[in-house]
Amino acid sequence: MVKGEVYAYLSYLRAMLSVEKLQHSYKSGASIGFPDFSCEKGAHWLLLGQSGKGKTTLLHLLGGLLTIQKGKVRVGDTCLNDLKRAEMDRFRGQHIGIIFQRSHFVRSLTVGENLALAQSLAGLPADWDRIQLLLDQLNVGHKARSKPDALSQGEQQRVAIARAIINRPTVILADEPTSALDDENTDEVIRLLEEEARSVGATLLIVTHDNRLKARFPKQIQL
Amino acid sequence: MNLLKLSWKNLAHKPLNTFLSLLLFGLGVGLVIFLFLLQTQLQEKFDKNLAGIDLVIGAKGSPLQLILCSMYHVDSPTGNISLEEAGPFMRPGHPLIERAIPLSLGDNYKGYRVVGTTHAFVDLYQAAIGMGRLWEAPMEVTLGSNIATELGLKVGDSFQSAHGLVNDETLEHSGSDAFHVVGILKPSGSVVDQLVLTPVESIWEVHEGHHKEDAHEEDVAEPKREITSLLVQFKARNYQTLNLAREINKNTNLQAASPAIELNRVYNRLGVGMDALQALAYVIVGVSALSIFISLFSSLRERRYELALMRVMGASQLKLFSLIVLEGILLASLGFLLGFVFSHGSMHLLAGFMQESYQYRFTGFNLLPMEGYVLLGALLTGFAAALLPAIQASRTDISRTLATS
């Protein structure tokens, strides 16, 4: 019994992403509670749940997009609760990569410039070699100079992956990254997502209700 | 990828909107600056050529025309007056009059007016001899500096004048004697720079020659000694001098016009037009500010998601605020630049036209301190137009925006 608690505590210490007694109340008055969990460094997790279970809310709380009302979220050694708003923005830019269901970009910029923007907004210098390398790895290297609007859904999602990992984040959060993709693209995008997450040693958490993914990820959290 | 570059890319992404905003802003600013330029230069010309002249005496007619013709050399004379009539005012020792300088107009050389006058005229405008000397004998001329440079005339050259005040070669006094250039004045910045100065007698001589030529038509027995007008400086300005002008207008065939009064009248008339144009200019600037505001605001709706995304990528609220403000200020600066080029360009074109029609020099290439304030005003306008959209942008609710994609 004591031993079990010690193990839990140790894994909590090793955790790159952990959630403790997290609760969120919506403006409508509805309140939602989330199970405690922690993901160790470099692990890939699937967060499953039907619509309305607060998947997106949880992801926004983890990414610091929503203010944490109750409970704690830790990313690496940092407790998100402690960060002021501008600090949170900076921390997010440097340590958390987020991929959304539908990828959006700054439309006036090219694909390459969008990635450079991700670097400079995080306070890092633009590294064009890395940008090109990354796009090449994701098979969209030839689109570096195109405007995002000219890309297909699958291509856009791959660029979104590139953007999420460009700053070598500690944690990558993906919100339904495959729901708009067909089977072929889904396989490809997930494979690349895992590959890239592994290459930067990031903890990957995919929020989804896509059953196609269940078989690929043994580590799952059910909401 | 700094903010300035990003804001530029955002503007360039919507070329039509940007173009419209720029054009409007440029037009407004351009008109504001143009009016400043025009007003300043007109006033400068008027003031410089005032030269301490208190009264102009000439033939009856429009007083403004008399002033414009005798002092600014733009209008035609109201007529001539006989030397006899003018004589009393030119008498040394007149109780009120310090000096009266005769002018005899009616000829030109390639559009530049030939003015028969005395050496006092040169003193009046504080012009100084640059090369050669002042005229002494009839048919000798001293040139204003612009003429010498524009027409490439040197001391020792000679030319024939033409009748009338505008350039028309068919009216050349081909039969009469030629004028000889004996000197060239230094640039004075006044109207003297565009005049051909000669003794009054030269004009009479040229026209007598003219008359001789047409002897069969006219009686040449006694050529009339006439002048066009007198430029008068008083010893002191008081009620007696006011009376003098009134007396001349009432009791003689002459007309006395006061430059101060006539110019005031011109300023007042121009003033109304200028004020109206200025109001129009500010309205255009206002409308263009509104167009910047609207285009930024409407672009926010489309860019909601990408603004939220920038926050996700680490941009602070201040950064989004700055981005939108920068877009407004960038538009305003470019608009100012356009207006600047626009106004100085038009002034340059106008200067060419003024030079051709009136031999007056204006320039499109001078900078007024006022333009610094216009720039400041333009930047403030851009800032003000972008303020609300910028606040809106910085308040983007990232979570909700991203959740409702």
Topology:
The complex is a heterodimer of chains A (223) and B (405).
Chain A: H1 2-14, E1 15-25, E2 31-33, E3 37-40, E4 44-48, H2 55-62, E5 70-75, E6 78-79, H3 85-95, E7 96-99, H4 111-121, H5 128-137, H6 153-165, E8 171-175, H7 183-200, E9 203-208, E10 220-222
Parallel strand pairs in A: 4-9, 4-10, 7-8, 8-9
Antiparallel strand pairs in A: 1-2, 1-3, 1-5, 5-6
Helix pairs in contact in A: 4-6, 6-7
Chain B: H1 3-13, H2 15-48, E1 55-59, H3 63-72, E2 81-82, H4 83-90, E3 97-109, E4 112-117, H5 120-124, E5 129-132, E6 140-143, H6 145-151, E7 158-159, E8 162-163, E9 179-185, E10 195-199, H7 200-213, E11 226-227, E12 229-234, H8 239-251, E13 254-257, H9 259-312, H10 317-358, H11 369-394, H12 398-403
Parallel strand pairs in B: 4-10, 6-9
Antiparallel strand pairs in B: 1-12, 1-13, 2-11, 3-4, 3-8, 3-12, 5-9, 6-10, 7-9
Helix pairs in contact in B: 1-10, 2-9, 2-10, 2-11, 9-10, 9-11, 10-11
